[in-house]
Records
---
Amino acid sequence: MLASAGYDGTVRIWDPITGALYTELYGHIGGVNALCTINVDGRALLVSASNDQTVRIWDPVTRAQRHQLDGQYDYGVNALCTITVDGHVLVVSAGFSRTLQIWNPVTGTPHHQFDADTHWIRALCTITVDGQTLLASADNAGTIRTWDPVTGAQQHQLNYHMHSGMSALCPVTVDGRTLLASAGDDGTVRIWDPATETQHHQLDGHTSRIQALCTIAVDGQSLLASAGDDRTVRIWNPATETQPEQLDGHTHWIRALCTITVDGHALLAYAGDDQTIRIWDPATGTQHHQLDDHTGYGVNALCTVTVDGQTLLASAGNDSTVRIWNPATETQPEQLDGHTGGVNALCTINVGGQTLLASAGHDGTVRIWDPATGTQHHQLNGHTYGVNALCAITVNEQPMLASTGYDRTVRIWSPTTGTQYRQLDGHTHWVNALCTITVDGEALLASAGYGGTVRIWDPTTGTQRHQLDGHAGRIQALSTIFVDGQTLLASAGDDRTVRIWNPATWRCLWTIPVHHQVLACGVITDSLVIGMDVGLIAIDVAGGRGLSGSGSGR
């Protein structure tokens, strides 16, 4: 199982294989800053520490709280670790009180406490030096100290992170020796020999504060991973000071993504607030193309469009334009002007054997274009505020276009005549996302938005079939996916989760934590791709089984 916690004060336990939420542990009345596991009498327990100034020990199987450890804390507890003393596994906690408190997890009573005489303690770990197990702490002033957990005596002091708060510590093995890795607000990772109090290496690369460190074994070699506010995860070889891998996010929020085939290769196009469109090979992680002509603040929508048998890419943004690109040559054959505000959504629709392009935006209009000539066929007026999402749907064997937005309505249009076919009312908040889903051969329409609910509609009758509750915040994106021959529905949003729904029962199959706000989602090859405020991730929803599909959100 996997445990997570955060500012909402809850501890959640997940099944990492299925993505399902196993249980939630309630008790803290402040944000949870740290977690660790501990084995007591052969049973794995979970320890949490919080801004409510408590440390709590939980049995994750029974969901019961074993102990609440109330120490002499000011404001909150920032760090936890376990340490073995005289054959007994104990819990160590520290925080704003500048003391180190050692607890007996069996009885829930204090074992030892000593004054660290430092600034706020932000990180803890254990390390073996000359055969002795010591406790390492790092404080807000950038000083690392090691302590004898039995006597409380300070053994070593490493203070070269001058004027830079420490945020992470972990032991790392280099050439058979146990060294100590540290990271902090200065953006560096430093490798220390605590026995000699000397710094062996300094790893430079992060451009802002580092928040986390851990070791990872690759091909039998111990490497070091770091993550920070520059939105990158970096993998280091601590022995050589080299960086074998860097996992980058986009430089700004990613608001749109879609798949596109270029020269026979399935590629991923995505775009966001930095005004660029980037096209990547998801198999190799290399960027193939970058399209830069949008102005204003950000690109909001992407979709592929076929023109004269060639697959092109359409983009739209806050500069009020829709642009048609040839991704192979990085040229822009057409620019579609007409919207008087930012454009939020795009989709293609087939009318009479001709592929047309629909766009919608802040001006409250939906426009239908011929992407080959750049001419506007229709302007659909009816929404009273901005339009956020579009998708094509078949109703009574006729191609239709669905739109939704800030007026809380879902509207269905005839792209042939430019008239409104039906209006679907029910949402009580702004609506951000639409997609079609086929259930038992019937095309239904899914919509979602600020209310945190997904609604399933029959577009023929205009009736609401189902309401899917579960998200704890605004939903930003919807997508259909196919798993083992079955059509499922994915939803994602501000509560930092992706939920997978089974349309046979309309129950949530999996809740997948992604830890960041989700702005877009889609499917490429065997993965559900999520665009977030910090970058992209790809999720194999089927856990290694076949997966493909398509979707549209904002």
---
Amino acid sequence: MSGDLIPRYRTELGGALRLRPGSTVGGYVLTEMLGGGAYGAVYLAKHPRLERNVALKVLYPGYAADPKVRIAFDREATLIASLDHPNIVAVYDRNDPEDEHLWLSMRPVAGGDLAALINAEPEGLDPQRVARLIVDAARGLDHAHRNGVLHRDVKPANILVEQHPDGERAFLTDFGIARALDATVTATGVTATLAYTAPERFARQAVDHRADVYSLGCTLFHLLTGHTPFRTTDPASTIAAHLSEPPPSPRDLRPALPAYLDIVITTALSKTPTDRYSTCSELAENVTRAVTATTYAPTMSAPHNVEVATLTPAADGDTGAVSNHGLLLESLNLYDPELATLLLAADSGDTTAMNKVGRQHEEHGALTEARVWYRRAANAGHTGAMYNLGVLLEEHAPLQLPVSLGSTVPIPAGKQPGDSEEPTSAATATNDLGDIPELTEAENWYRRAANAGHTGAMYNLAVLLEERGQQTDAENWYRRAADAEGHPATMYNLGNLLKRRGKLGEAENWHRRAANAGHTGAVSNLGVLLAGRGEQTEAEGLYRRAAHAGHTGAMRNLAALLEKKGELTDAENWYRRAADADGHPTTMYNLGNLLKGRGKLGEAENWYRNAAVVGHTGAMYSLGALLEGRGERTDAENWYRNAAVVGHTGAMYSLGALLEGRGERTDAENWYRRADRRREPPSREPGNRFD
């Protein structure tokens, strides 16, 4: 297919790639081939034990022979299998490390894919049908992004459709396969289909979820017009078009389409990731708006290759211009007479009006337009707009994808971090925040506003600097903000930072000031400081005060302190209250440990399982040990393996011992080596207390 890069394995192996019906892969018996692509083929197959059919994705044999691909595929399969969403094809199982083939078993979807729909309607699908399909795909993609998974190959062939009682539903498939195979292609190192690939992937820039937004935009264009956005004849010209050609108008191919779709396509296919929609759902919402709210859409051709429609300044008192602004806003579902009037003032250079227009757009979810207006006001010197632009950039910066189930994502600095014991520190963060352009720009705007005396900007700048590891600069800005207005959250964060820097006396003073101002997080952390120097009675009193006010961190700390004192019933009660309140995985894990020690094994198992399914590796390991202890070795093996693949050494050893016990010595030896232990029983993982 024009525009595809075909991996070398496919061209080398040619016709030998297809497996015959009746062949067995991973115990599944193949009954028929459903389709094939650049990476492998999909077969309808019978489950080896259950009376049901599955869709079995089998990669071509050459991939299985490459150790790098096997490792990458195993990593991606672990992430993919964790995705549970109604618009993502469910993954049931995957190959074992020693299997000949690399495969995934999935729920079969009966209705074909979007590529088949395009072939059946080559002039483009009904726009409202397209909008519904894009909404489904966007929901699945955003769920994956929130869970740290990029698709990397969004295209019509990877979106399946099926009829349901409530209508047609779209499902995403083939998550992460492109990433696992990126090491096996030539030239660009990009395995995804070129016609839908974001330009930053060719430029070897950092890639985040907005690459999937771009690909979904290309898919949208294809569904609407029957053609990919850039109609080229060879891979080199396709890459060049993505890198340099402006996004085309779908109405050049299908003039009857709503005019506002030009703006949607232009935004989704922006060359600069920060100028695209911040989420796939934001793209989908704008598509729906474009095809369902077109009564007042402009009758003239909408300008191609612009971020937002241009608003012409009007003379004072020109009510016709106000009306025209109102019609345009109504076509975008943003109609508000006050906003139309503000637009006129903003167009004439009123920076306060520009800032208010930005706020109105942001409140309606029109983030691209909000950035434009904030930036205009900020460049003209409006400090409030500088602050608002910084917050918008920071809050919608790309998520830093967790490298494992146990990784963390920094809390956005625009939010008050008073509900956690301490904000994420540079010492514990797993991501390099200095490499994210939005955060660098946000920092610059915060500095400009902070230097002009904006205390909110001082606070947000301090939080951002702290997350980046610039602790001295962060401390200085916290102090300036605290001295200027004495906000409890500022004093609380300053106390936390000083504690981490070893300045315990000052930390205690700031925590006391914040606690006296009513900050429950400061009350709890003041208790932590006092408990650390042995003042358990006062610490317990502070914990109880914050816990009764609803602070879940204080509940955890109080439970841990009571557990150490041997007051197990009271400790159990506070663990339960904290777990029920916020479902923190460490709370659930600690509660499981306490219940197990008290002989309540059934409840312990439930809490371990709750913590394990949200990624707590200690809970995975402890759950495996509990299950193994009562003879459920298969389930125990699964949990040991889940914990082991993300680095839990105790789970590696226990998995090795379990495998060795049933004679699988080679696999056992591998896990022993990975744990760097042999014949040494692991110590129980400590309870990760918050004291």
---
Amino acid sequence: MNPRTAAKAERYDALAREHGVAILTGMLGWKKICKLTGLPQRSARTLLSWILDRGLPELNVTPDTAQAAHRGDGIARESVRLAAQGARHAARDLNASAEPDASAPADASAPDADTDAAPREWIYAKEYVYNATDDKYVTFLKVAGGQVVVSGDEHRAMKRAYSNWDGRPASINEICRDFGMPRAYLMEYKQRHGWTHDSEPFTDEELLTRGPDELVEEALQMRRRALFHDYEKAKWAETQSKAERYDRLEQTLMLPIVRHLEALTPTYAVPRVALRAPERPFAVVVTPTDLHYGKYGWADEVGRRYDRQTARDYLISTAQALLAEVALRGAPDRFILCMGSDWFHIDAYRAQTTSGTPQDVDGTAAQILWEGCELAATYVDLLRQVAPVELRVVPGNHDKVFSVSVLLYLRAWFREAQDVTVHLGNRQRQHVVYGRSLLSFTHGQGQQEKPRELGKVIAHEAAREWGSTDFRYVFTGHLHHVFISEEGGLTYLRSPALSGNDRYHEEHGYTTSRAQQAAYVIDAERGLVSVLMAAPD
């Protein structure tokens, strides 16, 4: 380059440094450049071309950015403005550090100037510019062909999401989806800012302006939020799994039963036996608990065979014997019937209890459920020959879902019957008042095996009924043998079971209880006056 050309280039470089920012951010044409610089028209045109072709190298403003700014691109103009602002601040800080105040006394113990200085309002880096006043990050992306402006809140949120500090870093696709940034932009953006999964979850600007204690507390909060998020995710997965299991149950078992009911809507009439009027009004509580329909016990292994047919025979024969005893007292006001309570032996398609314990069974799950519901309806028909029936169902530990099925079955089957009342409800404990007596029903597992604890629960759940009655009884099952106790104003009556033994009972020696069905005569004024028992032939 000859001296004349070099001098000319040096002149235009100086003019570009002095007026380039104003020309680009103000989108000045050559006429206004003439007025600004005092140059003739030809020189003004040359200066404008010089700036657009070369950019502003001392400010890291590329030719593409310069051209975009001059065309009116807002992002490019903001980038040029912030670059100029950063350069001015840098020059000011350099002068301040080079020329200390001579009037200030020397003090070797004075704190470091960087420590006490007010936080900068800007951060200027080679790859991006941060404006603290507007809280914006301006980053040049080659893939975008210019500058990209991101708000401080969004920039910091992306940094936290990408960091592995809380143990669950977001993927590139997740961040693109959540923040609406194209994948190609984000790939270059994180590279420009030096982000990795191992990075701390704070920006360089935060590390410069915020205290350590504040950052530590926020990091701990992030860990807590991540832990809660993982807990909720696991909880939702468990809920979804249960919903899928219920859906399979509905499709494979419950819907076929509904179709069966629709095809076999009862049109029969049950005859009522003519009985004399009783000396005193009474009701009969019947709890055929723990039938375990579908259980299987091989005679050579458990001593006496138990299967579906055996369960049916036991139930019907003992019910007929009890009805004969009741008939001797005259016509009762009604039967208060509690079903469910391990009426079924299993609760799942794979021959398991509600909690997943495998069982020895006689028949498939669909067969057991189907026939068990029909057997329940037959049992109710036996009772209604003598008196109206008031029916409740409580879940057992073997059949929490199947017990709901039999409840819905009986409600649909007897929906037109005037002498059968089916109470909808799936609570563990259910309560009814007859005369001066409070009658409560529950299966009896867990804490409900303890009369003292159960009395507290019933007094709380049925406080009004407890206070308005003189006699309180609770009827349970579960342990398959008779037990009667009185504790704190509550009489605890554990009913026997009709169920036979299987391998589990044989192996553990639970074989001493006799298969029986019980009925309890409740006088309207005197409470429990008689307990009736019937054993299979």
